[in-house]
């Protein structure tokens, strides 16, 4: 299961997840350029080249049944990567899990922030509640993080959805009950993007319910994986 992080996040977002998933699932958190162990690399600031690079980099690891999980920006990457694999005539994931992201056809409701002056940019980060205050107050650390955060917000804010046929694989969508930016309707609208099985779950928490409701997310993912294995794996092999 390839896992894609939210804006500003790295592979460590999914630390410890493997222990709570079925033993036959290998967790593969994807480390994007510009963060954690790849801090010295230039981050992407547009979605299209990032998706193409992911398709190229992950191809050698797609020689067995696989799945995608992504939160917020990662959900968009999961969805667009699945569509890119279809364009290339490659195998699709058995299932796509999207979390904390409105369906791509839903119009954005926020003003872009990636090119705001630094004081305004930091104020917006505080409003989003995804960056700990002690990090925001750490001047040296923020000098390293701001270029990555700006690049990731640019990826999100320059994304333009292009209609295509629904994916043949199933799709599970998660939302936060207290997320003011991604509503229940936004999450439900993901159903348009699969001709297969669709599940929607709204969990306690704000946009970053992925952390506070981690156990509930993993429990739901495990249930879905059990159903997927029973139906899809014999055909996939």
Describe this structure in words.
The protein has 237 residues and is of the alpha/beta class. The chain has a single domain, classed as Alpha/Beta hydrolase fold, catalytic domain (Rossmann fold, 3-Layer(aba) Sandwich). The chain is built from nine helices and six strands, in the order ββαβαβαααβαβααα. It has helices spanning 47-58, 73-87, 118-128, 133-136, 139-157, 184-188, 209-212, 214-231, 233-236; strands spanning 2-4, 28-29, 68-71, 95-99, 170-176, 198-203. It has a six-stranded parallel beta sheet with strand order 2-1-3-4-5-6, sandwiched between helices. It is globular. The two termini are 16 Å apart. The model has no long low-confidence stretch (mean pLDDT 90).
Counting structural domains, the number is 1
CATH classification class: Alpha Beta
Q: What is the strand content?
A: 5-15%
**CATH topology, which one?**
Rossmann fold
Number of helices: 9
Mean pLDDT across all residues, rounded? 90
Tell me the series of helices and strands, N- to C-terminal: EEHEHEHHHEHEHHH
CATH architecture: 3-Layer(aba) Sandwich
Helix content: 25-40%
Q: Which regions have little confidence, pLDDT < 50, spanning 5+ residues?
A: none
Shape descriptor: globular
Q: Report the span from N to C terminus.
A: 16 Å
The CATH fourth-level homologous superfamily: Alpha/Beta hydrolase fold, catalytic domain
């Amino acid at each position: 299961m390839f896992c894609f992080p939210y804006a500003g996040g790295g592979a460590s977002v999914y630390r410890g997840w493997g222990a709570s998933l079925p033993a036959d699932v290998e967790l593969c958190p994807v480390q994007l350029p510009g963060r954690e162990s790849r801090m010295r690399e230039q981050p992407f600031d547009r979605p299209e080249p990032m998706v193409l690079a992911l398709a190229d980099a992950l191809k050698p690891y797609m020689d067995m049944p696989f799945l995608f999980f992504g939160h917020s920006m990662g959900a968009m990457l999961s969805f667009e990567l699945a569509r890119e694999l279809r364009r290339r005539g490659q195998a699709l994931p058995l299932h796509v899990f999207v979390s904390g992201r409105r369906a791509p056809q839903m119009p954005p409701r926020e003003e872009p922030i990636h090119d705001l002056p630094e004081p305004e940019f930091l104020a917006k980060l505080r409003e989003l509640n995804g960056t700990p205050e002690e990090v925001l107050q750490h001047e040296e650390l923020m000098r390293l993080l701001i270029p990555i955060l700006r690049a990731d917000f640019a990826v999100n804010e320059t994304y333009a959805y292009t209609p295509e046929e629904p994916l043949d694989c199933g799709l599970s969508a998660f939302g936060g009950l207290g997320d003011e930016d991604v509503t229940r309707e936004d999450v439900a609208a993901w159903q348009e993007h699969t001709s297969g099985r669709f599940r929607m779950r709204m969990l306690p928490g704000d946009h970053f319910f992925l952390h506070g409701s981690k156990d509930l997310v993993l429990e739901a993912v495990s249930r879905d994986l059990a159903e997927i294995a029973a139906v899809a794996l014999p055909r996939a092999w």
